[in-house]
Amino acid sequence: MRAGTLALVFLSAASAARAGQAPGLWAVYDSALKHARYVDLTHAIAPDIPVWSGFGASSFAPAENPATKQPYTYAKDGFEATHYDLATDQLGTQLDPPAHWAPEYPAIDELPATYAVRPLVVISIAEQVARDPGYALKVADVAAFERKHGRIPAGSVVFVRSDWSKAWPDRALAKQSRFPGVSLAALQFLHVERGILFHGHEPLDTDTTPNLEGESWLMHHGYAQAEGVANLDQVPPTGCLVAIGYAKLAGGTGGYARYVAICPAATQHGVTIGPADAPLPKAAPLHWDAARGMRVR
């Protein structure tokens, strides 16, 4: 940024402050985001969630003091921590970078910061899936969506609602040979013709073809994708943003992600910003559940 441009930014901010307006993007927060409804589209990661059998099981355990080999406790140490033995970076709600399949493309830590907030489009195939559990999104479905809701904006994130995730966390989900997918033709249309950032789906794979042709095409053309997305039935088809967060694992071929839809105030579902956000309210104390292998309330 040139010095003259920087000076103009500060002058604009100062003018806004003198006029009683929030400077810069704070005005966007005050006028829209502060009153929005927030819908979490993310599954919690736990030892018993569905995962491809080829990755094996994950486990949690209390973190131990390496000197004493004893777990830290609230009573003795004033805090507790958790040791995570995660079998894969393809776990739960994910953001797949293209390096998952194509090493010449970015890993999870190399994705740009511009992924943070994008327009969100939700295309539903729930009715088709109710008739055929193996239904895959088609170009015709995208065309029908656009006739009703308008053109999908370039740079947006498109999530495909199938309601598959309503059975989560039943581990049998990972064993299904037929589940809702996204056809290669639909992926190519969305990415090439509409120029979207990436798409996402509720199941843990893109499609049920023998060679996973959709995922292969995406990764080898430099596209990311979201998997294991939840709660899409609570989000309107258009008009929301999606906040995208993920663990920045060095050289990571997958990412434990969190997606939050930021929707207009009139949206039926979701939560709003309020005084209970900080300080956070108390609840029943966490305690270790040996049977579940994790802390619960």
Structure explained in plain terms:
The chain is 20% helix and 20% strand. By secondary structure, it is an alpha/beta fold. The strands form 4 sheets. It has an 8-stranded mixed sheet. The chain has a two-stranded antiparallel sheet with strand order 2-3. The radius of gyration is 22 Å and the shape is globular. It starts with a helix and ends with a strand.
Major sheet: 8 strands, mixed
Question: Which whole number gives the mean pLDDT?
Answer: 94
- Overall shape: it is globular
Summed up, the helix count is 7
Question: Which class of secondary structure composition applies to the elements?
Answer: alpha/beta
Number of strands: 14
Write the layout of secondary structure elements.
Elements: H1 3-18, H2 26-31, E1 37-40, E2 59-62, H3 74-77, E3 82-85, E4 94-96, E5 117-124, H4 126-131, E6 136-137, H5 139-149, E7 157-161, E8 181-182, H6 184-193, E9 198-201, H7 213-219, E10 225-227, E11 240-246, E12 257-263, E13 287-289, E14 294-296
Parallel strand pairs: 5-7, 6-8, 7-9, 9-10
Antiparallel strand pairs: 1-12, 2-3, 4-10, 5-11, 11-12, 13-14
Helix pairs in contact: 6-7
